[in-house]
Amino acid sequence: MPSLTPLKIVVMGTGPFAVPMFRGLGDSPHEIVAVVTRPDHAPPGRRPPPNPMREAAGAVGLAVFAPERVNAPEAVDRLRSFGADLFVVCDYGQLLSAEVLGIPPLGGINLHGSLLPRHRGAAPIQWAILEGDPTTGVSVIGMTAALDAGRVITARELVIGPRDTAADLEPRLAELGAGAVLEAIERLQAAVATGEAAAAVGTLQDAAQATRAPRLAKADGVVDWSLPAARIERMRRALEPWPRAVTFYARADGVRQRLVLADVAVAGHGAEATVEPGTVLATDESPSPGRIVVACGGGTALAITQLVPEGKRPMTAAEFLRGSPLRPGTRLG
């Protein structure tokens, strides 16, 4: 295949998932003509949250454009002024209108952290773990006005290990995505060079197979002990590092204490059907790290081996039990 012409690219991204892709494009023959990110906002007197894309762009001397509304007329005019051939989007945080997507001749492509059409939405990595998927991956799609519904130009797969958390998977998927984006651009250019329309490149998604992966809220971290132990174990991994899996128990002094479940495992034995989910079945201080066995739904049980009591440092179950009155029969949740 003859060498393809380097493109002028506008990169749109905000979070850490986009950074390896940005760096990969920076090392390629293509030219990044602009970086678009979300504006920084914070309550008075507080610093705005980190913006990894802004930091990555600044490290290589690229200024960023951070419009409040990317589809507003003044933002559209600014985007046109960059003269880009292609928009490359990942972890940006705003939906692009059909008008914006129509600015560059090759349209826009988006790097998504799942094997589409599975897990469309803002939290695909977390939902892949929550649903017990054996594999996940990344997809690069041609962008349309519908969320994560465009043609899949390229996809790459990754096995989810039995101990993988969302924090483990995200950087591995981001690195996988960097190569997938470059491959997708090459396929897009090659197809257009033969006369194919950019919007027709790739494979249509089967909408009947689509699942949703909505953004998670802090309340999603509160454990429902009526769920099976295996689901709660996946929840602990999926919600790491945020919002984390948490439960509560009432201490003898009446104080309701919050406990972060830092590490858990499905216990080797279940509970009698008459035992209320959330009931502590056993507390073992040895061998280290110890465990707190809790009844879950369907007669299953979960062992908590590491936890973070509210206002205290992370500790093993054995350490916690040595300073806590929590014993069998205590109710959590």
* Gap from first CA to last CA: 61 Å
Following the backbone from N to C, one meets helices and strands in this order, namely EHEHEHEHEHEEHHEEEEEEH
Q: Can you give the mean pLDDT?
A: 94
Main sheet attributes: strand count, strand direction, barrel closure: 7 strands, mixed
User: CATH superfamily of the largest domain, called what?
Assistant: Formyl transferase, N-terminal domain
Task: Give a nutshell description of this structure.
By secondary structure, the protein is of the alpha/beta class. Helix content is 24%, strand content 23%.
Explain this structure.
By secondary structure, the chain is an alpha/beta fold. The protein has two domains: 8-209, Rossmann fold (3-Layer(aba) Sandwich); 218-322, Roll (Methionyl-tRNA Fmet Formyltransferase, Chain A, domain 2). It is built from eight helices and 13 strands. The longest helix has 28 residues, at 166-193. The protein is elongated, with a radius of gyration of 24 Å. The mean pLDDT is 94.
